[in-house]
Each structure stands twice: as structure tokens, then as C-alpha cells.
Amino acid sequence: MPVSPRREMPAGPRRATLATVAASAGVSVATVSKVLNGRSDVAPATRSLVQSLLQQHEYVAPAPRRVEVTRVGEIEVQFDADLNAYSTEIIQGAVAAGAEAGVGVVVSIRKGADRTAGWARDLASAGRRALIAVTTELTARQLTALSRARVPLVVIDPLNLPRTRVTSIGSTNFAGGLAATHHLLSQGHRRIAYIGGPATAACNQARVAGYRAAMEAEGAPVIPGYVQSGHFRYHDGLVHGAAVLDLPQAPTAIFAGCDEMALGIMEAARARGLRIPEDLSIVGFDDTQNAQLASPQLTTVRQPLQEMGGVALRTALRLAAGERVDSHHVELATELVVRGSTAPVSEAGREERGAAGGFS
């Protein structure tokens, strides 16, 4: 029995495209698109022609592609100043912890004055599950705004101590200050200065308290002008280092509140012809990459900065999930790392400084 040839189903009418309409109107596809989008930069006659042809060709705009929302919410790590080596360590720890948890991490810089009334709402509308604020000063109004927007907050090394109970991550700053100062005292230094960050910063207060406790325990006086407050930046180390080194009774050793300030102090010392560590011993705080790049390499107190970033992120996720945290303040251990910027006090160096007016 012969097999009947297969009959092809007639194809339906082809759907009109922008190119079809444009060819019929003798205009560009861009012009047709402008008409569809209600743009005003099309001549009235051309607009009328295109609209007529769109109807004639029964043009139907394709349905917009559905955007799959793959983001399940991100954690924002926010700083209030330009990023530096300290910031980088915190970010690395937070990003690594975020990768393990399958959560994205957004890094931003938002200075205090930029945290306006809508700041917290903007964070919530952007899909932020929580905020990690680093070395930042937050007002009671800003804390209230975050609470109302339901954006959990974790702070690292806050610059102020808000009355509201805030979850914070830090290190054993007091113990670190104590260890740094004891190290210098063990090298025979008695004229030891401290140059740190803002006087209101909780981490700075703890470091200077450790410094004072060590000095008092050893019976070493804190000479007027030996404690200086600035910002945790190189320039502040340079300026305050110069001020301390120009005192009538200049120190033989300086404990800096962070590595970046220590580098500024080193430069201030070199500008005055001082050798490190022969004429001046310097201890930093943080143990960032700068400490090993310094010349000589910097003796410093190591903060576990990457671990702090990781703990902050995991804590933020727990708060975002509505879980309770075991403690509202977590302190990770510090450790003194001795390198080449400290040495026993030199009598020869002491005499040289005295001849130059550096010592009484």
C-alpha cells in the first residue's frame, strides 16, 4: 500500500518585529523604539506613521524577561574613612566567612555626616541582611534608625561606646597595651610615650590604659605630653611623633596605637636624624602587612584582624536569622611580635639626644 507523503502543517503568521515596522515606515529601528517608549525626539508626522504601522502589523512587544533574583541578601561591611591595610585584613576575613556561608559581602565607605535619616532604610531596601560597621562612631539616632529598619548591627572597634547595648567584636586591647609597654620597659626604657587614636575610641582607651598600668607597675612616670591622641593614620603619627620627639624630655621609646601611626613616627624620627632602634624604639599595634614592610621591621601587637572580620560576619548572620548571641562583646587574643624596631636603651644614644637638647 503506497505511503502518503507527509503533509507539512501550514506555518502561522510570522510575528511582526521592530525591523518589519521600521522597513515599512522607511525609518530606523531606533526611531520605532523611540515611538514605543514615548520619547519626544521624534517628528509628529513620523510618530503618526509609525504608530499607524504598529497597529497595521499588529505588533506586540515581547514580554519582559523575568529576572531571577539569585541574591538572598548580603552583609554590608561599612567604613567611615578611606581603606588601608587594617581595613583590608578585616575585609579578607569577612569575605572568606561569607564565602563559606554562601553570602555576598558588600564593602562601602559612609562617613558620619552621610548617615542621614534614610540611610538605614536604604540599607534595608538594598537587601542588606545586616551591617558590620568598622571603627565607626554611631549616634543614638542612627542606632534607632537601624533598629526600625530591622537591620542587625555588629561593630568592630567602635569609636564610641553607645548607651544602647550593641554587639561588638574586638581584641584584648588592654592586654596588648600592657604587653607592648612591658616589652619596652624590659629593654630598660623609662621614657616611653603613647601616641594613639581618638580619645573616645573604646579600643584606644583600652590600649592607653594598658600602657599606663604597665608604667605605674614599674614606677615609671608618664611625663606631661607623652600621651597624644589623633586618628589611626600615618599623618597623625608623623605630626604627633614630631611633637613628642621635640619635647624637652624626649622619649627613648614610643608605643603607637596602630602600625600606620608607627610608620609616621618612624619618619618623624628619621627627619630628626634619629636611628631606629639605636636612638628610638617603636612598637605598633595590629601587625598588618605594613609591619613587615617597614625598615626596620616593626615590633607590634598582633590583632587577629581576619578572624575578627570572620567572627563579625558569622555573628551578623546569626542576628539576621533572629538567633541570640552568647555575648554582646567578643574579644580575641592579641600577641606581641618582636622584630627589629625595638632594642635595649642605649646610653650612647641617650647622651647624643641630651647634647642635642632631647634630654634634661
Automatic annotation (TrEMBL):
Source superkingdom: Bacteria
Record-linked Pfam families: LacI (PF00356), Peripla_BP_3 (PF13377)
InterPro entries in alphabetical order: HTH_LacI, LacI/GalR-like_sensor, Lambda_DNA-bd_dom_sf, Peripla_BP_I
Keywords in alphabetical order: DNA-binding, Transcription, Transcription regulation
PROSITE patterns: HTH_LACI_2
Domain HTH lacI-type: 16-70
One example GO MF annotation: DNA binding
Signal sequence, renumbered to the chain: none
Protein name, UniProt field: LacI family DNA-binding transcriptional regulator
UniProt lineage: Bacteria, Bacillati, Actinomycetota, Actinomycetes, Streptosporangiales
